[in-house]
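Can anyone check this?
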Amino acid sequence: MMALFGTGAVVMRGAGCTINDMWDVDFDKKVERTKTRPIASGLVSRPKALAFLGVQLSAGLAVLLQMNPYTIFFCFGSMPFVIMYPFMKRITYWPQLFLGLAYNWGALAGWSAVAGSIDWTVALPLYAAGVSWTLVYDTVYGHQDKRDDIAAGVKSTSLLFGDHTKTVLSGFSAATISLMCLSGYMNGQGLPFFLTVAGAGSAHLLWQLKSVDINSPSVCWRIFKSNAWFGAIIFSAILADLAYDRITNTDDTEEQPSL
């Protein structure tokens, strides 16, 4: 199941990037960092990009069809967000919110793929935590291009928050940790999970906010990439909790007298 979701994530995120580049080709030509992208630079034509998108979506569908019927139907619900995201930066300063709604759909789909349904008391806080985290890292990412974005007419939370970015992202960071812990509580996670998420997870996000210089594109890029470590921290919290649960259950079994 993890292999399927890993493959699906790579394929569908790639499809999202293709859709984004097709929508934003005129904007990308005006932004220093993005003007060398394949479509914006003319290396790849729009018809070829559309054909490549077809291959990506077909691969994604092949992965999706391995899931149960509930998950297959549910996953189609993410497509409006995937398609809408590039358009949102034209009409709202909150395109990162729509990116989060699209990118974190897998948190819901993963539960349904395993259980055949969704326990919203667990999955919804997890989904909301992912959306909040996306607002943190993609706002930092957006500060790389803010000067070119203003000239091109592109909107973003980076421009909306401006000099108050660190203050606002502190709130979203706190929400990310709180919602992650709420999801863990509703799922019956143990002490290792909460210690790792609330301890190491909070420390990493705090480091990001203290270290980022929103006026330095190179620093923003470095901080953005460091979110891979935050993801690793959350994954390690799950593994640590799973290991702890198995050890304690084994000890309890061994202590029971035999009949």
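Reply from J.R.: I decoded it. The mean pLDDT is 90.
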